Structures are given as C-alpha cells and as structure tokens.
Amino acid sequence: MKTNIMKTNLKFLAIIVSLGLFLYSCSSDDDTIDPNADKNSERFENIEIGNTDFKVPQFNPDLHTEFDYTGNSKVTKITYDISPINVEEPNTGEAKWKVSNHLVPKDYYEGKLNPHIHYHVFFDPINKYLPKVRPAKGIYSLKITIVEEDNSESYITKQFEIVKKFSEVEIGTNNEMKLGSNALDIKFKYDAGNNTVSEVKYELWFEEWREGQNVAVGKWDNTIVVLPTNLYENQSIPNINFPLEINPDSPLGNYWLNIYVKESGENEAVKLSIPFRIAE
C-alpha cells in the first residue's frame, strides 16, 4: 500500500515539476518578446520626420513625415500613433502630444504597391496653420502601421525630437503679404545652443502659374535663397531680419516658406516650415 502511495506521489511530483518547467519556459520566452517590436521594417526606407535627423521645430504648425514603402501587395490602410517618451512639463500653449490610430487619407496610397508617402499631421487640427497648442519640448515616438490587400501588417517605430530652436518668428503680417508686393518680410531668432550657425537659407514653395518653367502649370515649384553669412556666421543666437524677394506677379493663394538653419558640427539643417498667403 505504501509503495502504491509513494508511486502516486512521485508521479504527481513529476507532473508538478514538468508543469513548472513548462511555465518557466513560457515565461522566459515571453520575456524575450517585445510587443512593440518593428515588423517588416526593411520595407520602410528614406524616412524623414521633420528632417532626416528627426528634429521638428516647435514653431511648425505640423509634423512633416516622408518615406518610401515596398510591399508585397497594394496598400489599403496607413495609420500613425504618436506618444510622448521623455517630454518636459508643458508651458502655456503646450501639451504632451499624443495621437492614436490617426488614419492617413487613402488618396496618398490607394491602389499603389510601393507608395511614396509625404504626409503632415497638424499639431492642432482645429486651428491647423496657426495652432493654439503645440507639443512640449522633448522626445516622442511615431509608429507607422501599414496594411496591405492580403491583410498583412508592417510597422515601424521611430523617435523624434520637438526642439525649441526658433522663436520670435514673424512672416509678413500675420502670415500674409499684399498682392503685388515684391518682398516677404521675415524675422526670427535662432538658438544653436553650444553650436554656432554656419548657414541659413530660405526655400519658397508655390504652385507654378507660368508656362515654360521647371514644372507644369499647377504643379508645386520652388526657389532657394542662401542668406549672407554676415547675418549669422559664428553666432550662437542670431537675430535674423532679412526679406525674401517675391515675384510681384505672384497670384493670390497659399504658399509655404521653409527656413533651413545649419549648425556647426551638425550634418543636417533644422527645417522650419510655415505657410503664408498672398492676399488682396
């Protein structure tokens, strides 16, 4: 009788040990799984978030994103998720920016196997180009998720930084200039921290209205102007007051101004993008 009881106990103990080893094995495996890990990250190339260094000026009205995607079947859905990672406490007019399941409109990718995506997410969707709330300074993450026709998913997560480099920015009069004017007034202050400024340039984007230009009428065209070095060279916090010449025949409508500031020791310029209008 004792022998049978001992055999039963030994079998029970063996089951417990086996179950314990199984649970330990599963637990160990789970510890190595990152639920936020990228999937098919090699399908995403040439990624820009703000710029290729993933720096985004707080004075922008939105987050610029751009990338190339290579799929196995046509893209049917793209979503963005943005989360604060290491962010300063917000001041007045600031917030720890969070966006969940933001759907990129289908006309950016519908019917395409390998789309090139260039998309902007507004900081303040209600006020868009003149936001009343901007992201607080710090590190954020952007997760891009893509679904294809075969229902497969690919996603990649990148961190980007909201920087307070530009301040006291004035573009025209409340981001407008008068029709027929030949110059857009531009003023701003730039803080390079421990670096100095080595280059500043303006890039004007506009819908071409003239025949025989670089692009067809109605397509976006641009001009670039490098500012004189005496305005900023070897300065850490230059105050820039330099207008941009504008063709006085430029029509009414919406325009974009990019300001690129390159710091000593940095490979990539910090890009500020601000819209303005030519109005009557």
Could you give the topology of this structure?
Blueprint: H1 2-31, E1 44-49, E2 55-57, E3 62-69, E4 75-87, E5 94-95, E6 99-103, E7 116-122, E8 134-135, E9 138-148, E10 153-163, E11 166-171, E12 176-178, E13 183-184, E14 186-190, E15 197-207, E16 220-226, E17 239-241, E18 244-245, E19 253-263, E20 270-279
Parallel strand pairs: 2-10, 5-8, 12-20
Antiparallel strand pairs: 1-3, 3-7, 4-6, 4-9, 9-10, 11-14, 13-18, 14-17, 15-16, 15-19, 19-20
Helix percentage range:
10-25%
**End-to-end gap:** 105 Å
Largest beta-sheet details: 5 strands, mixed
Judging from the principal axes of the Cα atoms, what is the shape? globular
Q: Rg to the nearest angstrom?
A: 27 Å
Give the count of helical stretches.
1
Task: Give an account of the 3D structure.
The N and C termini lie far apart (105 Å). The strands form six sheets. Strands 2-10-9-4-6 form a five-stranded mixed beta sheet, with no helix packed on it. The protein is mainly beta and 280 residues long. It has one helix at residues 2-31, and strands spanning 44-49, 55-57, 62-69, 75-87, 94-95, 99-103, 116-122, 134-135, 138-148, 153-163, 166-171, 176-178, 183-184, 186-190, 197-207, 220-226, 239-241, 244-245, 253-263, 270-279. The model is unreliable at 1-35 (pLDDT under 50). It is 11% helix and 46% strand. The chain is globular and about 55 Å long.
